[in-house]
Design goal:
Layout: E1 2-8, E2 15-19, E3 24-27, H1 33-43, E4 50-54, H2 60-63, H3 66-73, E5 77-79, H4 81-89, E6 102-104, E7 111-113, E8 116-122, E9 131-137, E10 140-145, H5 153-161, E11 164-168, H6 173-178, H7 183-190, H8 198-208, E12 215-219, H9 228-241, E13 251-254, E14 261-266
Parallel strand pairs: 3-4, 4-5, 5-6, 10-11, 11-12, 12-13
Antiparallel strand pairs: 1-2, 1-14, 2-3, 7-8, 8-9, 9-10
Helix pairs in contact: 8-9
Length: about 270
């Protein structure tokens, strides 16, 4: 059985925990280490179980503490070469990953990393590079897609294979358009290399899910341009228009931005 915990999902910091009975990995470490250690104690899990870190991209809210964690616990960090280059250049990462702990992954290539079979795939975003991860272990799988400007054909294939899915529902379009952000920032968010809105997130689920899909978590909600209840209601409404009923056909929850969500058992 896999266990999944979100230790933060949003622009203030992102970090996801995935564990088998004998192994664990973190996907992104954009939260503070002190808070992460406290949250782990509260959940009765130990960071010493973590033997691998996967990084999606090089924006600070996904990598802020990766160097400190990697060096303190002597844990290898897996990312594309471009993402590693971005981490080394990012001034928000005050402690860099030791070269001996920096491992590269290639998009489209599946690797066995501990107990986990990991396949990274391209996700459009305005970072040096960005990937989603399709992760298989314990006879099940989970697909994680965050910071996605749009849904590509390749991403659709992984959504279609997913039994469990973490997918970005960053903003409500009208809240962005009518909000206080400067126009250049609005344009960035709404672009095909920005962030995915609630409606498009729902359409991506509805048009690409298979009968295997059991549970969806909406991730990376904007504090200024979204609200958990708005995201949930929007996605539920769009899914219902496709004949998909949350709570009956699939389970759906919204990940909290700054506090943990979970744990969840993935079977």
């Amino acid at each position: 059985m896999l266990k999944f915990i979100s230790f933060g999902s949003g622009s203030s910091g992102n970090c996801y925990w995935l564990a088998t009975p004998t192994d664990a990995l973190l996907i992104d470490i954009g939260v503070g280490l002190r808070g992460l250690k406290k949250d782990c104690r509260n959940y009765g899990v130990s960071l010493s179980m973590v033997h691998h870190v996967l990084i999606t991209h090089d924006h600070a809210d996904h990598i802020k503490s990766v160097g400190s964690f990697s060096n303190d616990y002597c844990v290898p960090v897996y990312a594309t070469r471009e993402v590693h280059d971005g981490i080394n250049r990012n001034y928000c990462v005050t402690k860099k990953i030791a070269p001996s702990l920096a491992c590269t992954v290639e998009k489209g290539r599946t690797e066995q990393i501990g107990d986990f079979k990991v396949t990274p795939f391209e996700v459009p975003h305005d970072s040096n590079d960005n990937v989603g991860y399709f992760i298989e272990a314990e006879g099940t799988n989970i697909c994680i897609i965050t910071d996605a400007g749009t849904i590509t054909d390749e991403m659709k294939t992984y959504i279609n294979r997913a039994r469990y899915l973490v997918l970005e529902a960053n903003h409500d379009i009208e809240m962005v358009q009518n909000g206080p952000y400067p126009q250049f920032l609005k344009d960035r968010i709404l672009s095909a290399r920005g962030h995915m809105n609630n409606h498009d997130c729902a359409v991506a689920i509805a048009e690409n899910m298979s009968e295997e899909l059991r549970h969806v978590w909406l991730c990376h909600l904007s504090e200024e341009n979204n609200h958990p209840e708005l995201a949930r209601k929007t996605v539920e409404s769009v899914l219902r228009s496709y004949g998909i009923v949350c709570g009956t056909d699939i389970e759906m929850e919204v990940l909290k931005r700054m506090t943990p969500t979970g744990p969840f058992e993935l079977v």
